Structure formats: C-alpha cells, structure tokens
C-alpha cells in the first residue's frame, strides 16, 4: 500500500510538471505570437504614416520656397524703389544747384545793369573835364575804381568799333548811313554807347550807327 501511494504521488508530480511545462510553452508561444502581431502592426503603421510624413515635409518645403521667393521679390522691389529715389534726389540736387547759380548770375547782372548809368555819367564827366585839374583826376580815379569793381563781378565790354561787322545779337542799330570805302555796307559806322555783358550774357547792347 505504501509503495502504491508513493508511485501515485510520483506520477502526480510528473503530471503536474508536464502540465506546468505545457503551460509555459503555451505562454511563450502566445508571447511570440503577440510580438509578431505587434511588429506587423507597427510595420503597417509605419508604411501608412511614411507617405503622409513625406507629403507633409514636401508641403513645408514648398511653402518655405514660396516665402523665400516672395522675400526676394520684395527685396528687389525695395531696391528698385531706393535706386529710383536716389536718382530723383540726385536730379533734384543738380537742378537746385543749377537754379542757384542761375539766380546768382541774374542777380549780379541786375546789379551791374543798375550801375551802368553811373558809369556812363562818370565817362561823360571825364570827357567834359578840362586840362589836368584835380576834378579830372578825381573822376578818373573814381571811374577806374568802378570799372575794376564791376569787372570783378564779371562785367566785360562788348567788342565794338567803327568797321566792325554788325551783329544783331550784340548791337542795337539806332541809325543808318551810306556806306563808304572804310565803312562798307553792313558794318558799324559809329558807336554811340558802349555795350556790356556779364557772365556770358548781354546786359546792354551797344548802341550803333550802321552803314547801308
């Protein structure tokens, strides 16, 4: 009886060990199956997400490229505008400088023109003075000083003498006379009043008689 009990106990232990081994094997197989299923699921998810991620990255790249092109176009527009403004400012500065010079020249011409009657009177006074009087000397000094001062302002006499070819741009014909051998037709026969120019522009025409 004791021997049978021991045999039954040993058999029961072997059966329990076999059952435990089978359970462990089943658990291991189940774990492997689960891992394989998870791996397949992950692979499918990666395969599904891959094109979507590539598409998103491509869209971001296209958007960045578009923004870069817009920035370049805006930069070129601003650069062109800056160049245009600079050119306009340079032209304005040149025009302003030219206008300033022209205004200054015209002001000097008007000043000289206002002084010409006084210059003429001094010349007449010098012509009327007799001998070597102190008055004549004083008039000569005054006339010379005025001519020098006006010359510094750019005043020059208009070249004109008997026999000069008449130039309507420089002379004002107030009388005519018959031509002669020493004064052919179209030439100046007599100068009544000296003409003057200031800084390249006539301020008073020479008053002359012209032979015809």
How does this model look, in words?
It is a single chain. The chain is α+β, with helices and mostly antiparallel strands. It is built from two helices and six strands. It has helices at residues 2-128, 134-152; strands at residues 155-157, 171-177, 188-193, 196-198, 201-204, 206-211. The longest helix is centred in the N-terminal third of the chain and has 127 residues, at 2-128.
Write a brief structural summary.
The chain is built from two helices and six strands, in the order H-H-E-E-E-E-E-E. By secondary structure, the chain is α+β, with helices and mostly antiparallel strands.
Q: CA-to-CA gap between the ends?
A: 180 Å
CATH architecture classification of the domain at 156-212 = Roll
Q: Mind telling me the C-alpha Rg?
A: 58 Å
Portion of residues in helices? Answer: 55-70%
Count of β-strands: 6
Main sheet overview = 3 strands, antiparallel
Low-confidence stretches: none
User: Which topology of the domain at 156-212 does CATH recognise?
Assistant: Nucleotide Exchange Factor Grpe, Chain A, domain 2
The chain-level mean pLDDT equals 81
Instruction: Please identify which CATH superfamily of the domain at 156-212 we are dealing with.
Output: Head domain of nucleotide exchange factor GrpE
The CATH class designation of the domain at 156-212 is: Mainly Beta
Tell me the overall shape: elongated
Question: How much of the sequence is in beta strands?
Answer: 5-15%
Across the major sheet, the strand order is: 1-4-5
